[in-house]
Structures are given as C-alpha cells and as structure tokens.
Amino acid sequence: MRYYSNSGIFIITILFFFLPFLEIKCKNEPFAVMSGFDLALKNGMAFSNEETTDYMKDNEEFKSLQKTQNRHDPFSIISLITLLIAALTQLFVKRKRELLAIVFSSIVAVTLIIMHFAFKLGWNKQMDDMGPMKSMFPLTLNFGSGYWLSLITCILLLLLNVFFIVYDNKSMRHIEKNDIVPAPDFNEQV
C-alpha cells in the first residue's frame, strides 16, 4: 500500500506545479504570477488584471525584454521530469522502492532549493540594474504556494521513506533476534 502512496504523492507534487510558483508584487499588490508549468514551458507571466495585460502586450520595451528573458527554466524541467520518473518507478519497480523514493525526492528538493536561490540572486541583480526606476516601481519576487507545497511534500516524502527503511530494518532485526529458539532435545529422557 505504501508504495502506491509514494507514487500518488509524487503525482500530487506534479499537480502542485499548476499552482503559482512565482509571484511578482508591486507595492505588495499582485502584479504577475507564473506557475511551475509556465516556467518549464516558457509560457510567460499571467498579469493580475486585464489593463496590465493589455499595456504589456503593446509595450515594445517589455516585448523585447520578454524575448530575451523568456526561456525554459531548467530547474522546473528537472523537477517535473524527476517527479514523473519517480511516480512511474514506484509503480513498476519492485525492489528498493523506499530508497528510490528517497533519491528522487532528494533530487527534487535540492533542485527546488537551488532554484530559490538562483531566482532570488537573479532578481536582486535585475532590481539593482533598474537604478532610479527601482524606487518608483518597488517590485518584489515571492515564491508561491505551488513552490512551497512541492518543496515541503518532497521533504516529507524523503523523511517518510527514511522512516520506512529504519522501521523495516528494526523489524527484521527483531524478528531475527526472536526467531532463535533453542531446538528441542529429543534425546532427553523423560
């Protein structure tokens, strides 16, 4: 049963990629949002209102900026592919499922953590390059619910499977220890 729960949790984590991964706010008001799939498939940002969307469609400077910066995010792609492989291996591989779940959830967790720092570093550099525009448009980058749910789920899955391995090893030692029962001596005189 727990093997199928591992697979189900990996699939649920993939679904978290449909939720907001990145949120850009201007003066603490929502400005733009990108899901994990938007990042992986370079779909671009979804703006908070239609006025902003219309303005950005007509803005030549934004169009040129979007062409240069709109690319597939390797962190999202690596995470999604790893989650998909993890879900499939939990269904079809018969041995070492817990160990595989630990490896795959670790890869995704580390990738998402690196993504966090890389995006923050890139964002801070980009904001520093804005100069005086930075004070007129105080934009902030936040990581959305999809990002945090994916990261927390991978960490919990990692810990859960470590627990399974430790519990199974303790159970096996307990069984081996208690299985050693002295054999009856049939030569004894009654």
Structure description:
The protein has 190 residues and is an alpha+beta fold. It has one domain. A four-stranded antiparallel β-sheet has the order 3-2-1-4. The longest helix has 35 residues. The chain is elongated. The model has no long low-confidence stretch (mean pLDDT 80).
Q: Short summary of the structure?
A:
The protein has a four-stranded antiparallel β-sheet with strand order 3-2-1-4.
Distinct helical segment count: 8
Counted up, domains total 1
Q: Portion of residues in helices? A: 55-70%
Shape: elongated
Please state roughly what percent of the residues sit in beta strands, choosing from under 5%, 5-15%, 15-25%, 25-35%, 35-45% or over 45%.
5-15%
Runs in which pLDDT lies below 50 for 5 or more consecutive residues are: none
Give me the secondary-structure category. Answer: alpha+beta
Mean pLDDT: 80
Largest sheet: 4 strands, antiparallel
User: Using DSSP, what is the number of strands?
Assistant: 4
H-E string: HEEHEHHHHHEH
Topology:
Blueprint: H1 2-15, E1 20-26, E2 29-35, H2 36-41, E3 46-47, H3 50-58, H4 60-69, H5 74-92, H6 97-129, H7 133-136, E4 139-143, H8 145-179
Antiparallel strand pairs: 1-2, 1-4, 2-3
Helix pairs in contact: 1-5, 1-8, 5-6, 6-8
Which features would summarize this protein structure in a list?
about 190 residues; alpha+beta; 4-stranded antiparallel β-sheet; 8 helices; elongated
